[in-house]
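Fold sample X.
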Amino acid sequence: MKYLASAEQTSAHQSLRAQTPQTQASTASFTPVSSARELREVAPLTIHKDTLSRRARHSPRLVGERAHRFHFLDAPSIDYLQVDGNYVTIHVGDDRYLTRATLKYLSDVLIPFDFMRIDRSVLINLQQVDYIERLESGRFGFQLRRGRYLVSNRERSGAILRLLRSSVR
């Protein structure tokens, strides 16, 4: 059986507009819903923006495997990700971890957290970049803080130039 909040819990109700969130929580009541039709007819529960913004601020954690152990890796600590056959290798300093997720999926998840594809098979963490230098034939070299040097391909040069021209990140 599903439950939905009654009108007294939503912010659209007149009597609750003046109440604080603490009072709203104490007056909440729930109505049982037995069918999908009734579910569509009842007003949806409102979501507070604070809850969403708190979740959005936290960077994701990836799960990488090394030596038959699974490790939780915070996105800011990752240097870069690289395709390795059917796997993606996650590079954190000198350590390497494997994951079965595709680089396309990982780039969709990580691009809002300062990651950028510099090659078809490489996704780099811009927070770990010490400097970028322009190379011949439209390529760029990325010097990472932990000593690794990665080179982009020409197809990604437009996106890299847009990043460099925006200058504030």
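Fold sample Y, listed below.
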Amino acid sequence: MGIALMAAVMSMAVAVLPDSSGAAVGRVGGAPPLRLAAGSSGLSAGDACPASTGRIPLSGGVHILVHDGVRRSYRLAMPVDYDGRLSRPVVFDFHGFRADAALEEQRSRLGVVGAGRGFVVVTPDALGTPRRWNTMSDPGKADDIGFVGALLTDLASRFCLDGRRVYATGHSNGAEFAAALVCRSARFAAVAMVSSTFEARCPAGRAPATMAVHGTADPSVPYGGGVVAGSSTRVPAAPAVVRAYADRYGCNPIPRTAQPAPGIVARRYVGCAGGGEVLFDTVVGGTHLWPASPEARRDPRDSAAGRAFDATGAILDFFTAHEGAGVGAGAPQGHSRISSSRRPAT
């Protein structure tokens, strides 16, 4: 990490405030030095971290961060063997429109499965009634991009995090937001979209590893393109969106095709810029539900593939295979401009 960047990071702090619920409350302000792995310019897998800087640690559960004067809630799941000695990967999981973090944890099961595989899992709540992520960063609405950046900085000051392994995923509107987020911040190495393939267009030189999971019988965000349910917004076909990602990222235009599970067609575009790849898992007969979620397993309208495919495990496998360029997890980054050919609708 460069001297100027480190100085900027060290100038930030997060004062811990008492909360009536007993949860630690962070306020964006200034912070102690990041707990970087010894001898590294950015955290890498398995690097050792120095002793605690004395910050109040957080346990798993619901916590509050005050951002722009607004109390923002999030759920945190920690690996059971976390001891602060070795750097850990981080995944942010964003809920869909009208949902919340608690429901997202039930659907994706990332808090349990991800933490069980050594990930620090962060599941934030959007604002609004109903809740919705501000994917396009519309003025006058919640600064969700800034909130996530501040939250990552706060967590990096408390835990030993791996700055090369920071990831984003989400369902529906949360998938759209995750795709926009990784284009806006170089702190994220990869993204996985579930039940919504959003046409985020990253700035030149930015090509995060990208994965999408989409059911062919999705009634809300049509797999083959069309009008999003409950709106007048039209979306292109999911395969076309994924191919466009592969084209923009300079991948081999001919995908490798496989069937990793019954009813699942995986198209993998390799040779992308920066060593990345674009992966598209099509769930034949799958609906808008997160595959293999409790809801999907109970829904008779979902296909056998939609009820059984372990999308969560596949996403974690994808993340495990990809690292970023080593941007410190706690280093504030400027936001690059992002564009999209459509408005978010789910």
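Sample Y note: The mean pLDDT is 84.
Also: The CA atoms of residues 215 and 243 lie 17 Å apart.
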